[in-house]
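Run log, item B.
One chain of 164 residues. Sequence copied directly from the ordering sheet:
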Amino acid sequence: MGTIIEFQPWRVSELYPHIGKIMTQWGFLDFPVRAAVAAVHSLPAAKLIEQEPPRAMSRRLRFLRKTTRKIPELASFTERTADLCGRVAKFGEIRDGLAHGYPSFYEIESGTIAFMRLDSGETTHISQELRITIPELIGAGSAIEWLANDFGVLAHDILDSGVV
């Protein structure tokens, strides 16, 4: 680890546009994921996998992966769904670190910002850390924007396939 300085409150405002883009684009991503889940869940075979449409993002992604693998009518969407769900999960870690964490420190040499948060464990709290640079923040916002578009196309294609 390089030279670490405490993250100064006045510098937090520099992060707002980048974090704001990620959070806003996450909302645009959430909608087509929910649309795909709703479309797939309308199939009787999908209700055997999950009685109710899953609410948490991780459960929705797992549901979409599982149903496209197990329901023959959705087999043509398996590969694309797995790819998109994997990408959403990757950016979900960044989104969660930013949404539930705070900028704790800055590493000068690498330009890395550490966001810290506490998660509940079975019997104790667990400290979680997201380490990210400003270029990675900027890239994540743009990548989530494209991912929202790609997931929208997938949801449209599922609806347009005549399967649901």
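Observations after the first pass:
- The mean pLDDT is 92.
- The two ends are 52 Å apart (CA to CA).
Flagged for discussion on Thursday.
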